[in-house]
Design a protein that fits this description.
Elements lengths: L13 H23 L20 E9 L4 E9 L6 E8 L5 E8 L2 E3 L2 E4 L2 E7 L3 E6 L3 E4 L10 H4 L4 E2 L1
Antiparallel strand pairs: 1-2, 2-3, 3-4, 4-9, 5-6, 6-7, 7-8, 9-10
């Protein structure tokens, strides 16, 4: 890649202009982040609640076990300005089947612990590790393409597995 030298007297090509703009934006983001400082242990836990009705605090993890061919994602969303919080757990198996469960209720928040339904997140060491568990039934779908079509009414028709 050749170096771009910006000289206000020279006109940049369209490609050079795009690269220069991207570098400018990246540099501004870098400067803003460097002023914000390093992450601290308490940055990983709940923050003061904002006044926006859609304000939320999200804890999201994804996972993949190559040897077993299992992948998925987990989220607990704390929505203090709404009537309930949300949780979701989706596990995809290597043969295309999927297990899923969603929760729409108030989460329980304790010292380093969040839970909703049977889904539980425990912070072991801030910025280092969490223990995540689930106990309960999940919807079982043999064809993962069905997941995109699911809604509360259709969810009742899917078989459940422990």
């Amino acid at each position: 890649m050749r170096e771009i030298i910006v000289n206000p007297k020279e006109k940049l090509t369209a490609s050079e202009s795009v690269k220069a703009k991207a570098l400018e934006v990246a540099y501004r983001v870098y400067r803003r982040a460097s002023r914000a400082g390093a992450l601290k242990a308490d940055d990983e836990w709940l923050h003061p609640v904002g006044s926006d009705s859609d304000w939320n605090e999200s804890y999201y993890f994804n996972f993949f076990d190559y040897t077993k061919g299992i992948s998925g994602f987990i989220r607990i969303g704390i929505l203090p300005n709404k009537e309930s919080d949300i949780g979701i757990l989706v596990v995809s198996m290597k043969k295309g089947s999927i297990f899923a469960m969603a929760f729409n209720e108030r989460a329980t928040i304790g010292e380093g612990k969040l839970s909703i339904g049977g889904l539980e997140f425990n912070i072991l060491k801030p910025l280092k590790g969490w223990r995540i568990g689930y106990s309960g039934e999940m919807l079982s779908m043999e064809d993962s393409r069905l997941f995109a079509q699911i809604d509360e009414n259709k969810a009742l028709s899917f078989p459940r597995a422990p």
